[in-house]
Amino acid sequence: MLGVPYFMGEPMPFLGQIGDVDLLEPDLGPGTPQQRMAVLYRALADTVARDPGRPVIAGDCVSAIGVLAGLQRRDVDPTLYFFDAHGDFHTWETTPSRFIGGMPLAMITGRGEQTIVDGAGLRPLSDDRVVLVDARDLDPGEPVGDSGVEVLGVGEVAESAPRRGPLHVHVDVDVVDPGDMPAVNYPAPGGPRLEAVAEALRRLASTGRVVAVSFSSWNPARRGAPRAAEATLRLVESAVG
Prior knowledge:
- By secondary structure, this protein is of the alpha/beta class.
- The chain contains seven helices and ten strands.
- The chain has helices at about 35-50, 65-75, 105-110, 115-120, 155-160, 195-205, 225-240; strands spanning about 1-5, 5, 10, 20-25, 55-60, 80-85, 130-135, 150, 165-170, 210-215.
- It has an eight-stranded parallel beta sheet, with helices on both faces. A two-stranded antiparallel sheet has the order 2-3.
- The longest helix has 18 residues, at about 35-50.
- The protein is globular.
- The two termini are about 15 Å apart.
């Protein structure tokens, strides 16, 4: 796997918990979190463009921008399946928290903050190229429902025909119910069990059209981190078929 051990542009030494991983650790230099992440995810895009086949595991969902940008450099324009307990669809105008980690899917679709998108070299995806999976914990005013993004449950993904064409599967591990996936920063109870998420990932992998797989990890400082690492590896195995 390719590891990107950063959370919001700051080092996050979590990858020792999952064994042998090649680390991407560029010099990010000074600057705002957006500027540092622009450098980081430009480097990730460079790496994915050279070698798109490896699963990517990173500290946050903004990493999906770098993976998509790298695929586009190879003239691959996938549909994004974005598994997340949250919408990640805020802009500066809607966010109650001012947290960039609540914005990546909005960024990917060309909304709001674009520093990281521009830095990574991503051409934003149209709404109809995005499937948001199991976003059960949306903030008031988070405008997913006003967009053209399709929203499905994990069970619907497992039981329905996947979109045509190439697929990029991104998984924030907090999509799994915290009973099976402890140690996440923003747990959202009432989610699907680990095996249900694994089954949905296997369904997508069975198409043979998954061109990239990326994950946003657990928090290694939280209780239950070793169990979360083991559960994440099970999801990676399911996603790569």
